Amino acid sequence: MVLSVTAELQSDVATTYDVLSWELELAGARCIFLDTLIGKLLTTVAPEHREQLLEGVQAVDLLSQHLTGLSTFARQLSQTVVAQEPVGVSAALKSITLGALADRMTTSFGGVEAGFNDGDDAGDLDLF
Amino acid sequence: MTAPRILIADSDRAVSEMLQIRLEVAGYHPLSARSGVGALEVIRNMRPAVFVLDRGIPEMDAFDLLTILQKDRSRPPCPTVLIGKRLGIEEIKRAATLGVRTCMVKPFSGADLLERVAKILKPAPHGGCVSHGLAPPPARASTEFFI
To answer: Which of B13, B37, B61, B122 is the most buried (most CB within 10 A)?
Structure first.
């Protein structure tokens, strides 16, 4: 539960793990989506490219399981920690470079969102 | 055959988006609402097969919303999964009287919810939906309750 919503956003240990577990679960779900998409692509590519794509599917599948495992870990911790020690989360939130993620987590901690979203331009890759 | 529509009513974006992705990949047609008023509108217009409702949905108390739905005789009752951070035994009992089939305490995984939705939609021998009235809780029941 959020302890206070001030300029310096504070939470407690359990809520921090809770928010983290949802984000890891969301990242895992996005991997599952990607895995499904690549799986569909497999049927359309030329046989000589299939092996490479298959490696991609396996990597994404592994990543998905990795995230799910971490999410389960964080979820278990959120249910077992008893210390209500306040945690200052503002600095950690400011260190997140993906705006939509920082925004979502900020609102989960009871803060005010800055207005980022996961639109088409979110996570754009700047190659220059 | 059209995919069953599942409405997620939760103001937490991470929860909502995660569940929508998991449901879509599983072959369902996810719908979402961020408030109680929005959920009512979606239910009336889209008639979801399953309604996943967060206890802490803004703009309307979840139990008030369930009461409105229960009194509405113009459409068949929509099986509901109630989710929430803290669900007391009295709340679970009250939810059961208002058409809630399953309660899940947050946090839970997307896989857990998919399992519950699949069980609700599983056709019963008599042609209706499976009733979970006497179903035993699963092994990891510490955060989930069948009503």
So the answer is: B13
